[in-house]
Amino acid sequence: MNSAPERTVPQAERAHAQWVLVLLPAVEHPLALYAVCAVAALRKNNVVIMSVDSMLCDRITIAKELIKRAEVLSKSRAGGVEGGAKLCSKLKAELKFLQKVEARKVAIKESHLKSTNLTHLQAIIESAESLEDVVSVLHVFSYTDEFGEKQTLVVDVVANGGHTWVKAIGRKAEALHNIWIGRGQYGDKSIIEQAKDYLQASRQQPVQYSSPHIIFAFYNSVSKPMAEKLREMRISVRGDIVAVNLPSGNVQEENDLSCSESDEDDDELLHVGKVDRENIVASLAFPREIKVEVCNRVNLDITTLITYVSALSHGGCYFIFKEKVLTEQAAQERQEEVLPLLDSFMEGKELFACECAVRDFQSILDTLGGTYERERAASLIQRINVVPDQPSERALKLAASSKINSRSVSIFGTGDTLRAITMTANSGFVRAANNQGVKFSVFIHQPRALTESKESSATPIPKNEAASDLH
C-alpha cells in the first residue's frame, strides 16, 4: 500500500490538532493531521461566529436602551435640549446598521463591532445624565484658530446653562496614550491637541462674560501623565486615572496629580512604557453641583420694563380683550406668572438701564399706561442705575434689518459694555444678532403689554372658569 503524499499544514492549525497524533498509526499521520486540522479550524471559526453573535446581540440591546434614554434627555429641559433629535438620529442609525449585520445583510468583523460609534454616543448620554441644566448636545461652535483660520468644534454636552462644556471620550486609555506619544496612526489627533482646540473655542464663546469650564470625561480610563497635562491646561478630568509602567524601573508617585510639569518632564513622557489599566490611581466622578461665576449686573430692556409694571403681571389677566394679542398674553399669564421669574433673576443683582430705554419706556407709559402701572414704573425706576447709551463696538457693527434697529443696538450694546445680562422679551433681535455672529448675554422671558387702560372695554373672566380652562 502506497503511503499518502505529505501535505503542508499551517502552524496554527497544527497546534489545534497535535493531540490526536498519539491515536493514529504512523502511516496515516499526514492525511489524518490535515483532516483534524480542518476540523479544528472549523471549530475555531464557529467559536468566533458565536462570539460575534453574542456581542452583536448585546450591542443591539444597548442601542435600543440608549435611544430611550436619549429621548428622555431631549425632553428634560423646557423647550427641549438642542441637538437631542440629532443624538437620537445617530443612535437609530447605529441600531439600523447592527440589525442589518444581524440579518447577515452586512459582513463585519468582531473588531469592527467593538469600534462602532455606540461607545461614544453612550458616553455622551451618561455625561449629560450626570450634569444639571443641559442646554444642548453635539453642539457645533465656530471659532478662529491660532492661525486666523475659521474652524468648527463639536461639543458633546453643553450643561449648566452653557457654563460647562463636556467632551465624552470612549476610547481606551492605551490607544489615547499611544496617540499622544506618537505611536498612533497617521492623522490621529491626540487628546491634548483636542484640548487646545476646546480652549481656543471656549475663549471666543463667553457665557455671561466668562469662558465655559471644560471637562474631559473618560469612560475607558486615561493615563496619569495625560490627566496631569490636562489639569495643567486647566481642564477638569472625570473617569479612572490609571498608572503607566515606566521603563528602566523608573517609578512615579502614583498618588501625585500635581499640575506642575517642566519641559524636561514633557520630553520624558515621550519614552513612557505601557499603560496599566489595572492600576487605578484615582477615580473622579462628576460633582453633583458645578460652581459657576454668576454675573451680578442686569441690564433692563424696554420690553422687560413694560412687563414688570404691566397690569397683566399683577393679577389683571382675567380678561378677554378686544385685541387678540392681549388676550393671548393674559392666557399665558394665567398659565405661568412671569413676575416671579423676573424677581427671582433680579434678586441680589445690580440693575441698570440705558437712557434711551428709560426715555422710550416713559413715552410709552405716558401714552398707554394706567394709574397703577405708572406708580409701579416710578417705583421700579428708583431701583435702577440709569446710564448713558454706550453700545459696544461689536454691537455697532450689526447690520440694520427688520429685527435690528438703532434703539435695540443701543440697549443691548450698552449691556454688553457694562458686562451685564440683558433681560428682554425681544427674542427676535437676539436671534438676528446671533445670525450675524454676535451673541449677547441675555435672559429671555415672555412679553406682557400695558393693559390697565384696556380693562374697561374687556370682558372679565370668572377665576373659577379660568382655572377650569387650564385643566
TrEMBL record:
Domain DUF1308: 298-459
Pfam families: DUF1308 (PF07000), DUF5614 (PF18474)
Domain of life: Eukaryota
Domain DUF5614: from-to ranges: 50-267
Region annotation (Disordered) ranges: 451-471
Family: Belongs to the UPF0415 family.
The protein's name: CG025 protein
Organism of this sequence: Engystomops pustulosus
